[in-house]
Design brief:
By secondary structure, this protein is an alpha/beta fold. It contains 14 helices and 25 strands. The protein has helices spanning about 55-70, 75-95, 95-105, 110-130, 165-180, 195-205, 220-230, 240-255, 275-290, 310-325, 345-360, 390-395, 410-415, 435-440; strands spanning about 5, 15-20, 20-25, 25-30, 35-40, 45-50, 140, 145-150, 155-160, 185, 215, 235-240, 260, 270, 300-305, 365, 370, 375-380, 380-385, 400-405, 420-425, 425-430, 450, 465, 470. Strand 1 and strand 2 (about 15-20) form a beta hairpin. Helix 3 (about 95-105) packs across helix 4. The radius of gyration is 23 Å and the shape is globular. It binds NADP nicotinamide-adenine-dinucleotide phosphate and magnesium ion. NADP nicotinamide-adenine-dinucleotide phosphate binds near residues 187, 219, 239, 240 and 396.
């Protein structure tokens, strides 16, 4: 299958983008002959058309992955590790290009895309090192028996990923599957398949055997659903909305598939009066405006201590002034902090939340408007003194919109911070480490960042409490 030539805006560089389904280490056409458009949120123009997989193509991919599994599961672990390290090396050589593809397709600022690509490379290396460190136990039963446990691969795994971190989610699914001797079929989000398909050229170049990794772009209801229903797929790892996560769990129940779910969030980011103000403001910005707020663990509920009215008001003023200096725009422009929202639907959803907030007379600290009339750009937006029971406090917006809520006591804070259907991330800002640990032990959240935010490491597990998901990824 041929690739298509794609040019990045502003910098005018061109690269070759594969557009087929990646099955058995080849880019192939969909059996139906259908394609779908992949647009850039930067100016809404068409980047290219990509082959659209459905049930028939998933079936072919499952056959390829089942065949590959027979050999891959017995490939010596250190050899599997070498393949993953080779893939990491090849991605390292292409790290700038990979970041640019991600920015074009997803709309994220280049510094965000570079951050992702770096994590991806480090994560594949972490998984490479894990391959030959998987062991079981010997169990003392009685002298007549020798009893031991062995960790074994499951077989063919399925993965369905969202559009906010296309390449990072690809790595979080493919790395552990390959390290543990499984083969995989991954469906990327329809909005952002390009970096995944490009990386498939590197999978082939790394010598990873045919059929071990298969990537099948296609619609959620068509291609995604066929992955959920396929009896030969033994596990599904899903990242995306809580709503679709519930469907995934129900569908997987029919064939008792194991599931990992990384779903939505509405994470509290907590500021105590004894914090380092400058650093905290930077962390609040990273918490909610990094990646345009399209982050499942975004620190979107900001709780600020308001025992001293003057300090609280001054903090808000500094926060507002710092946010208003951020540069929003085309990711390929110099110095851009926040790019475009990824999909037209999500863009509209964010604007609708802002409209609803204005209609219910919430107090606007900054932002609140679309930028320009081409591309999906939204001002970093903060509402303050927002009630705990407000729609904006309770629902995931998934964009650059934060709510600020004041608190007077630690007990009140903990009550409010945990008053959410979600429990993914959280942050605490204070110079009092004892207080930070005390509060962290009372938060219902998979991750608690202290004096930092959105800070990831391959060795640190990531996942949610409550409706934010099941299972842990990474470490
Ligand atoms: P989504 O609908 O959950 O999509 C995530 C993935 O699931 C995509 O690959 C999607 O395919 C697929 N999918 C959709 N319906 C499916 C079905 N019935 N069966 C199998 N697969 C299915 O999320 P979204 O539409 O991209 O975003 C909606 C909301 O989800 C956002 O507003 C945000 O709140 C949340 N979200 C959370 C995360 C996260 O990291 N936790 C990431 C993205 C979005 P298509 O792309 O082809 O539709
Ligand atoms: Mg796109």
């Amino acid at each position: 299958m041929s690739a298509t030539s794609v040019t990045f805006p502003i910098i005018n560089e061109t690269y070759q983008q594969p557009t087929g389904l990646f099955i058995n280490n080849e880019f192939v056409s969909a059996k139906s002959g259908k394609t779908f458009d992949v647009n850039t949120p930067i100016d809404e123009s068409l980047i290219c058309k990509v082959q659209q997989a459905d049930a028939e193509d998933v079936e072919i991919a499952v056959q390829a992955a089942s065949k590959a599994y027979k050999t891959w599961r017995f490939t010596p672990p250190n050899e599997r590790g070498r393949y993953l390290n080779k893939l990491a090396d090849l991605m390292d050589e292409k790290r700038d290009l990979l970041a640019k593809i991600e920015s074009l397709d997803n709309g994220k600022a280049l510094h965000c895309a570079k951050f992702d690509v770096n994590l991806v490379i480090e994560y594949f290396r972490y998984c490479a090192g894990y391959c030959d460190k998987i062991d079981g136990r010997t169990i003392t039963t009685d002298v007549e028996h020798f009893t031991y446990t062995r960790k074994e691969p499951l077989g063919v795994c399925g993965a369905i990923t969202p559009w906010n971190f296309p390449l990072l989610m690809f790595a979080w699914k493919i790395g552990p599957a390959l390290a543990t001797g499984n083969t995989i079929i991954l469906k990327p989000a329809s909005a952002t398949p390009l970096s995944n398909l490009f990386t498939c050229t590197l999978i082939k170049e790394a010598g990873i055997p045919a059929g071990v990794v298969n990537v099948v772009p296609g619609s959620g209801r068509g291609c995604g659903n066929s992955i959920l229903q396929h009896p030969k797929i033994k596990k599904v790892a899903f990242t995306g909305s809580t709503e679709v996560g519930k469907t995934v769990m129900k569908e997987c129940a029919n064939s008792i598939k194991k599931v990992t779910l990384e779903l939505g969030g509405k994470s509290p980011n907590i500021v105590f009066k004894d914090c380092n103000v400058e650093q905290t403001i930077q962390n609040l910005i990273t918490g909610i405006f990094f990646n345009g707020g399209e982050v499942c663990c975004a620190g979107s509920r900001i709780y600020i201590e308001a025992t001293d009215e003057k300090w609280y008001t001054e903090f808000l003023t500094k926060f507002k002034e710092t946010v208003e200096k951020l540069k929003i725009g085309n990711p390929f422009e110099e110095g851009v902090f926040q790019g475009a929202q990824t999909t037209p639907d999500q863009f509209q959803t964010v604007l609708d939340y802002i409209t609803a907030a204005n209609e219910s007379s919430l107090k606007l600290l900054t932002g609140g408007k679309r930028i320009g009339n081409k591309g999906y750009f939204v001002e970093p937006t903060i509402f303050y003194d927002v009630p705990q029971n407000s729609k904006l406090t309770q629902e995931e917006i998934f964009g650059p919109v934060a709510v600020v809520l004041p608190f007077k006591s630690t007990e009140e804070l903990i009550e409010k911070a945990n008053d959410s259907d979600f429990g993914l991330g959280s942050g605490i800002h204070t110079e009092d480490f004892n207080k930070a640990i005390w509060v962290s032990e009372r938060l219902e959240a998979g991750s608690v960042w202290i004096n930092t935010y959105n800070d990831f490491h391959p060795a640190a597990p990531f996942g949610g409490y409550k409706e934010s998901g099941i299972g842990r990824e990474m470490g």
